[in-house]
Amino acid sequence: MRDIVSCFSDNAVNVSQPSCSSYSNTSCITPTNAPSTQNSISCVYKLVLSNLKQLLITVTWCKNHSNQGLSITFGGNQDPPQFRLNTNSRFFRKKKGTKLLDPSSDDTTKVEIMWDLSNATYDSGPEPVEGFYVVVLVDSEIGLVLGDMGEEAVTKRFKSCKKCVAKVSLVSRREHCSGNSTLYATKAQFCDTGMWHDVVIRCSVENEGLKYPVLSVCIDKKTVIRVKRLQWNFRGNQSIFVDGLLVDLLWDVHDWFFNPASSGYAVFMFRTRSGMDSRLWLEEKAASHKDKDRVEFSLLIYACKSS
């Protein structure tokens, strides 16, 4: 699959006229109604410290048949994880502890990680839902606090003194899913002060004389888009409003129809932008940097359908 940015041009809606012999109308549809399984979840957080220094932290939860764990990266996504924890290995797991990371040669920032996953509970995905904490301290300042037990852990650590707390914003969330279903369910918070929403993406068959695949996206059980004859409209974008925010919704399901043997990923992306900004998000790279401190949020779902 091509890079997602290259898939959406100004004429991306209803593009392409594929040969009718190159696909089956129902090749990407499966009868099961069970949602696909999340294999990994990566969240990128932006920290603004008290000295106005900014830091990106990527937290990745992963799970497969032999491994389940957590990794944390500081800086760009291309960097290797500076912290990795295998919570499934009988020999190497350490579900509770602290670790002081060595600063890189060109950075004097001191980072300490505290975690406790010993009583964590999970749903079907790799990310714990309760009974845990992960805390990141940057130069002894409270940075990222995750989990329902996070505040309690911070209070115990700094009960005798008051510490500065960094400003934290969730920049993006990326989910990888797989299974023999074309039903994907997740939760998303489109702004720091907004409520959590149930997001369901479904590809089903609609009978209009012939059986045509239809893509529908629901937020809190309300259908926000419905794309008919998906085999011709396999790439596109549409704008919706959530919590008063303008959200660009983009999809690319090309590989479901044209590369079924390669188990290619379909991509769904939600990205917020200012209601006063008429530009599609991919045009912002050429815009001025006057809004560089404005934090926007994106949710990417990579969906691999097994045969």
Poorly predicted ranges (pLDDT <50, ≥5 residues)?
1-28, 281-291
Outline: globular
CA gyration radius, whole angstroms: 21 Å
The main β sheet shows up as: 9 strands, mixed
Q: Mean pLDDT across all residues, rounded? A: 78
Estimated structural class: mainly beta
The sequence of SSEs as H and E is HEEEEEEEEEEHEEEEEEEHEE
What's the structural domain tally? 2
Number of helices: 3
Query: How many β-strands, per DSSP?
Result: 19
Level of helix content?
Answer: under 10%
Sheet-strand content, in percent, reads over 45%
What is the spatial order of strands in the main beta sheet? Answer: 4-3-2-1-11-19-18-17-16
| Straight-line distance between termini | 18 Å
InterPro entries: DUF868_pln
Walk me through what this model shows.
The chain has two domains: 4-36 and 181-305, no CATH class; 41-171. Helices cover 6% and strands 46% of the residues. The model is unreliable at 1-28 and 281-291 (pLDDT under 50). It has 307 residues and is mainly beta.
Task: Please describe the structure with a list of short key phrases separated by commas or semicolons.
about 300 residues; nine-stranded mixed sheet; about 45% strand; mainly beta; 2 domains; disordered N terminus; DUF868_pln; globular; 3 helices
Summarize this, please?
By secondary structure, the chain is mainly β. It has 2 domains: 4-36 and 181-305, no CATH class; 41-171.
Write the layout of secondary structure elements.
Elements: H1 4-7, E1 37-48, E2 54-63, E3 68-74, E4 83-86, E5 96-101, E6 111-116, E7 121-122, E8 128-130, E9 133-138, E10 141-146, H2 150-157, E11 167-179, E12 183-188, E13 197-208, E14 210-219, E15 222-227, E16 235-242, E17 245-252, H3 254-258, E18 265-273, E19 298-305
Parallel strand pairs: 11-19
Antiparallel strand pairs: 1-2, 1-11, 2-3, 3-4, 5-6, 6-9, 7-8, 9-10, 12-13, 13-14, 14-15, 16-17, 17-18, 18-19
